[in-house]
Known about the structure:
Elements: E1 59-65, E2 85-92, H1 144-153, H2 161-172, H3 192-206, H4 210-216, H5 229-240, E3 245-252, E4 267-279, E5 288-291
Antiparallel strand pairs: 1-2, 1-4, 3-4, 4-5
The chain binds 2-acetamido-2-deoxy-beta-D-glucopyranose (7 copies).
EC number: 4.6.1.19
Pfam families: Ribonuclease_T2
Keywords: Disulfide bond, Endonuclease, Hydrolase, Nuclease, Signal
Amino acid sequence: MKYQFAASGVLLLGAASASLxxxxxxxxxxxLQKPVLSCSADAIPSKVDSCCSETFGGLLLSTQFWDTxxxxxxxxxxxxxxxxTLHGLWPDFCDGSFTQYCDLTRQYDPFPxxxxxxxxxxxxxxxxxxxxxxxxxxxxxxxxxxxxxMNKYWISQGSPNYDFWAHEFSKHATCYSTFDVPCYGxxxxxxxxxxxxxxxxxxxxxKVPTFRWLHGAGIKPSNxxxxxxxxxxxxxxxxxxxxxYIGCSGPRYNTTAAGxxxxxxxxxxxxxxxxxxxxxxxxxxxxxVAVNATGSNTNCATSPGAIHYYERSKGSEA
Length: 318
Ligand SMILES: *[C@@H]1O[C@H](CO)[C@@H](O)[C@H](O)[C@H]1NC(C)=O
Ligand SMILES: *[C@@H]1O[C@H](CO)[C@@H](O)[C@H](O)[C@H]1NC(C)=O
Ligand SMILES: *[C@@H]1O[C@H](CO)[C@@H](O)[C@H](O)[C@H]1NC(C)=O
Ligand SMILES: *[C@@H]1O[C@H](CO)[C@@H](O)[C@H](O)[C@H]1NC(C)=O
Ligand SMILES: *[C@@H]1O[C@H](CO)[C@@H](O)[C@H](O)[C@H]1NC(C)=O
Ligand SMILES: *[C@@H]1O[C@H](CO)[C@@H](O)[C@H](O)[C@H]1NC(C)=O
Ligand SMILES: *[C@@H]1O[C@H](CO)[C@@H](O)[C@H](O)[C@H]1NC(C)=O
């Protein structure tokens, strides 16, 4: 399984609790209220209904992967042709730091990563989940179209897709005020916020078609050509309206033949992009404002032509 921490900022300690602010479970009819922009001066629990404007993790990262295989092709788990895949929708704090596994009563991740809430031996242990997989939560809602979409676009490498969705939900989504259980009011149905989060992550994902944007600039997967980070970064920034974070894996440039002798120790295989946003009101409504990545906006090599954007393996996409 492939998981990554936010590149910038410090990991803050998160207290496990059933509700981030002790919101009431009544009357959160949010469209009656003025949507407040997350990370603005008014976006604090004493000034707004935390169910209706995000007051906990106000910097939203819509994140995607570019993988060339899943490792589970034999079980039909393949990558979507001509599309990057959905990684998650993360609630960072406004300064780019973040916390995780904020509500252990909603812990559905069979392989918690990290294993404690602060990632250290002295943190609260995150108990591995052993119940029905999170994909089954959609069934009582009849959301089979959503499930099919997720199995097409929200793809894990090295583990079943549903384990990855559970990881994204329990590690990250439990840290939003706006997806907190009390926000769903007195008629809350079990796992309603899980479905809502999945739909919202997809809503954000659909706004940032990385493959299409790069393709339009002539940047296509290739095992024979390389690209410059500048061209990739500026293309995506142009379309998104702010500079995203671009993540690379693979060897460091100056350990490769092409980069031999240079001082560029950035990584050379493009694999991730994180689009940063503030949001008016509930993230669910999708009223985003693009913002630049906080801190460093890449770990990739910056030398001209240093980046591989590899084609998928044969049989790994459909
Ligand atoms: C919601 O209901 C609670 C309890 O009845 C009340 O105290 C609060 O003022 C109400 N909030 C709004 C925004 O109507
Ligand atoms: C946990 O350990 C870290 C590093 O050893 C330390 O900085 C931190 O204060 C400790 N936290 C608690 C809650 O004991
Ligand atoms: C399943 O998880 C629960 C809650 O963490 C735990 O009490 C139980 O022992 C686990 N069961 C198995 C078979 O691991
Ligand atoms: C880098 O160049 C040196 C000197 O020409 C050579 O010995 C070495 O094998 C090269 N390393 C790589 C990774 O190509
Ligand atoms: C790569 O570059 C870094 C400086 O950016 C240098 O410290 C390191 O020794 C270099 N490694 C190689 C293999 O050249
Ligand atoms: C975002 O980054 C771009 C490019 O570096 C810069 O021109 C712009 O001013 C930045 N925007 C903000 C709000 O800092
Ligand atoms: C392209 O290269 C990547 C990385 O080496 C490899 O995984 C993939 O199978 C290759 N794709 C094709 C179509 O050759």
